[in-house]
Amino acid sequence: MTETSTPTAARRLRVDLAARSYDILIGPNLIDAAGAEIAARRPGARLAIVADETVANLYLARIEAAFAQANLPATAIRVAPGEGSKSFAVFERVVEALIDARIERGDLVVALGGGVIGDLAGFAASVVRRGVDFVQVPTTLLSQVDSSVGGKTGINSAHGKNLVGAFHQPVLVLADTAALDTLPPREFRAGYAEVAKYGLIDDAAFFAELESNWREVFAGGPARLDAIETSCRAKAAIVGRDERESGERALLNLGHTFGHALEKATGFSGRLLHGEAVALGMAQAFRFSARLGLCAPSVAQRVEDHLAEVGLPTRLNQVAGGVGPVDGLMDAIAQDKKVARGALTFILARGVGGAFVARDVAPDAVKAFLEAETLEAEAAPA
Ligand SMILES: NC(=O)c1ccc[n+]([C@@H]2O[C@H](COP(=O)([O-])OP(=O)(O)OC[C@H]3O[C@@H](n4cnc5c(N)ncnc54)[C@H](O)[C@@H]3O)[C@@H](O)[C@H]2O)c1
Ligand SMILES: O=C(O)C(=O)C[C@@H](O)[C@H](O)[C@H](O)COP(=O)(O)O
Ligand SMILES: [Zn+2]
Which purpose does this protein serve, as stated in its record (predicted)? Predict the structure, then answer.
């Protein structure tokens, strides 16, 4: 896709990946500008919009109108909302629908929705005709600050989270911040976990700012826009240096080794949203770091306090229906994509903003930690 100046007034960042570089535009009402933005870059393309039913009911007509105005013919493919759509069955249906719509190599798939849709539609785009380009139009906080950027796409397996997928970068990201006005509070909160993650990884000043100003971020306005931009900038920088997670990109997995195991244990269901699992997983990563003597217990407490203050879960007893036995969690952890020759990798921390990739973490230490966490949950049921 050729680089172009944007027809709309929006904040613009760039993911620098040589021939796969692309823009991230952030601002209100970008859905209405999607036609002009895409036509400026890919005139004459045919589009297939993938959306879940909830997002389709809210925004499909508007984006279709924008595409019609820019003379971009578009078909729509609807799927059920929720993590369950990151499945082989739904993936097959989307792939067949894209082929049926005669989406060719020069055309575009448009992922309109949250991270589920971005991961699913992006993966479908990566395989149809051995790869067609796609555009991310993220409509949740989580997808605007994280999943729409970086090119990880995929679906879940019975063995665990995101175990089938591909690296396939989008050619453009249009984050319409006004779409967040219709997002349910629980979903906004879940997305906030990934915002806080950037502070915890390597930006202590950002985390401190969030501790002071999180209410403004939740309320909307400039603080929210700033938080989205800071998050995208942090992710774009890491992805630009390590597109395929051979090194530092693994830092973006802070909280995810525990979190993905918890998502599997709760059946990839609405009992625990991805962002909620990440919040709990980050609290656990810091408590585990403290247990290993890597950071002070007060640091882990500070992290937990902030996540809890915004209403995110930080302890196992807050997961509706529980998470089952520790052996089930350990099985899921053994399937984590960061495992190398059977050795476990975790993202641990020496402090707020001091995350690092810890390779060859002893399974016995992880198990003992999870047993302690489980005992504590059983002693204090919610
Ligand atoms: N590829 C990556 O780098 C990456 C990064 C983080 C997370 N993820 C994945 O993203 C997924 C989670 O994404 P999510 O939290 O966006 O979930 P989601 O896509 O399921 O969206 C959450 C819910 O909000 C609804 N919704 C979306 N936009 C809305 C809007 N503007 N108004 C009202 N309702 C709206 C959806 O219908 C859905 O029910 C997980 O599968 C996770 O693994 C991927
Ligand atoms: O982009 C990344 O890299 C991340 O790890 C971002 C995570 O927030 C995201 O949930 C990602 O899908 C997890 O990646 P996975 O490789 O552990 O499945
Ligand atoms: Zn995540």
Answer: Catalyzes the conversion of 3-deoxy-D-arabino-heptulosonate 7-phosphate (DAHP) to dehydroquinate (DHQ).
pLDDT tens per residue across span 182-199: 999 999 999 999 999 999
ipTM, 2 decimals? 0.99
| Proximal ligand: closest to the CA of 140 | 1
- Measured from CB, residues less than 6 Å from any atom of ligand 1 are 52, 54-55, 58, 81-83, 86, 113-117, 119, 139-140, 142-143, 146-147, 150, 152, 162, 179, 182-183, 187, 190-191, 274-275
Amino acid 282 reads M
Residue appearing with tokens 């949950």: 377
Grouping H, G, I as helix, E, B as strand and the rest as coil, residue 269 is coil
Q: Name the DSSP letter for residue 253.
A: G
Three-state DSSP class for residue 139 = coil
Under DSSP, the state recorded for 314 is -
**All residues at 6 or more sequence positions from 256 whose CB lies less than 8 Å from its CB, including other chains:** 278, 281, 347
pTM score: 0.98
Ligand 2 pocket, 87 CB below 6 A?
no
User: Which two tokens mark 265?
Assistant: 């244990």
Structure tokens at 375: 């005992």
Q: Can you tell me the distance from the alpha carbon of 179 to that of 139, in angstroms, rounded to the nearest whole number?
A: 6
pLDDT in tens, 53-62: 999 999 999 9
Pairwise CA distance, residues 161 & 149, whole Å: 19
Q: At 351, list the tokens.
A: 């402090």
**Using a 6 Å cutoff on CB, does residue 152 contact ligand 2?**
yes
Report the run of H or E that residue 170 belongs to, with start and end.
none
- Active-site choice (41, 168, 189, 274): 274
